[in-house]
Write a structure and sequence with these properties.
By secondary structure, the chain is α/β, with parallel strands linked by helices. The protein has seven helices and twelve strands. It is about 30% helix and about 25% strand. Helix 1 (about 20-35) crosses helix 2 (about 55-65) and helix 4 crosses helix 5 (about 100-110). The two termini are about 20 Å apart.
C-alpha cells in the first residue's frame, strides 16, 4: 500500500480505501503526460492532504522535479490571495475543484488578467458550463478530470475546448465502460452505469472484505 484515504461519504458512510504504489505511480505517469507537468513548471498546491487531489499537487512535482507553492490554510479559501500567489510565483499549473476556481475567478473578474500562462485542471465535482467557458477563455489550457477515490484520484481526463463538457477519456492503463442493470454493455448513445477498472483500481476497503467483494 502507498496510502489509505477515506472516501467523502457522499454515497454513504466514509470508507477507508487502500491504494497501492503501482496505482499511484500509474496516475502520476499519466498526468505527467496528459494534461502534462514538467520540471520547469511551478505548481500551486491548494488541496488539503485529506483529499486525494493533493496527491497530484504534492507528489507529481516531486516525481518530475517541478516547484511547488504551498498555499496557507487561510489562503485556500481566499480567491484574491490565490490570485496573488499565481502572480507572485509565476504559477504554471493549478488543480482545484470548480468551487475554488469560482473563488479565484471572482477576485480576477471575467476577462481579467493573471491566468494566461496557467494550465488549469478541475476535479472533485461537476464542472458547470458557464465556469468552463470562462476558464477556457482565460487560461492557457484547461482540463476536466474525473475519478472516485477507489480508482486512485482520476480515472478519466479530457481538455475543455468550448464544446460539450465531458469527463474525457480513460487515463493510461485504465478502462471505463457503461453497463446496464444486467451488467451488459449499453448501445452507443444509451444511458448506463459507469464501471472503471485497470491499474488504478484500489486494493480494496480496509478491513471490509464484504465491501471489497
Amino acid at each position: 500500500p502507498a496510502y489509505v484515504l477515506y472516501t467523502s461519504g457522499s454515497t454513504g458512510r466514509p470508507k477507508a480505501v487502500v491504494v497501492t504504489h503501482g496505482a499511484l505511480v500509474n496516475l502520476l505517469a499519466a498526468i505527467r503526460e496528459r494534461p502534462g507537468v514538467t520540471a520547469v513548471d511551478t505548481v500551486l498546491a491548494v488541496t488539503t492532504i485529506s483529499f486525494d487531489m493533493a496527491v497530484v499537487d504534492l507528489l507529481l512535482p516531486l516525481a518530475v522535479g517541478a516547484r511547488v507553492i504551498l498555499a496557507r490554510r487561510e489562503e485556500t479559501a481566499d480567491g484574491a490571495a490565490l490570485a496573488r500567489l499565481v502572480e507572485r510565483w509565476g504559477v504554471d499549473v493549478v488543480q482545484v475543484t470548480p468551487v475554488t476556481w469560482r473563488l479565484l475567478l471572482g477576485s480576477i473578474g471575467r476577462g481579467g488578467q493573471g491566468l494566461e500562462s496557467v494550465r488549469g485542471m478541475a476535479g472533485g465535482e461537476a464542472l458547470a458550463p458557464d465556469l468552463a467557458a470562462d476558464l477556457t477563455a482565460m487560461t492557457r489550457s484547461f482540463w476536466n478530470l474525473y475519478g472516485p477515490t477507489e480508482v486512485t484520484v482520476y480515472a478519466t481526463a479530457g481538455p475543455v475546448d468550448g464544446g460539450p463538457i465531458t469527463i474525457g477519456r480513460p487515463i493510461a492503463n485504465t478502462r471505463a465502460v457503461l453497463l446496464d442493470r444486467s451488467g451488459h454493455l449499453t448501445p452507443l448513445g444509451s444511458a448506463g452505469h459507469l464501471h472503471v477498472g485497470g491499474v488504478g483500481l484500489a486494493r480494496g476497503y480496509l478491513n471490509r472484505p464484504d465491501l471489497t467483494a
